[in-house]
Predict the structure.
Amino acid sequence: MGLAMDCFAVAVSWSVIKKEIQFFEALKIGIYFGFFQAIMPVVGWLLGLSFKDYILAFDHWVAFGTLGIIGLKMVIESFKTSDKKEINVTDFWLIISLSIATSIDALIIGVSFAFLNVNIFEIVSIIGIITIFMSMVGFRMGKSLGAVFGRRAELVGGLVLIGIGTKILIEHLIQ
């Protein structure tokens, strides 16, 4: 859910900016977000496997650092205000660029997955499905909750990522 919070925040913001977003528009955007959130950890995982032998001794620090930095960035971003402006939320290139931008953290987290004993395909399936769902919920909730909730969602997402990184670090240090 932490990874999907960026997409959720974008969906909330879009539904506040655009008066009418049809169900299939929201579904289409959710599928793009979900696809990129699912594929980027695989790319990161493959990169991480290539370097696994070199950094296995400090993998928990890599996971803690990447999740902590991304989480902290999300927390900081949640406190920034932005000007509302009209955008075409159905523009293909805008959807692609936002899908990539919101999934960069998933790429970095995928590198961390290479050092953990996880089933990458199960994880990315879950990430993709949750992202589609969270995006759809974001579009729906944005109608009534507005931009304030979007900033809070990003804050919660950042705190979740920091918590996951801290948990990984503590588990490895205790072993």
Summary: The chain has one domain: 4-174. The chain has a mean pLDDT of 79.
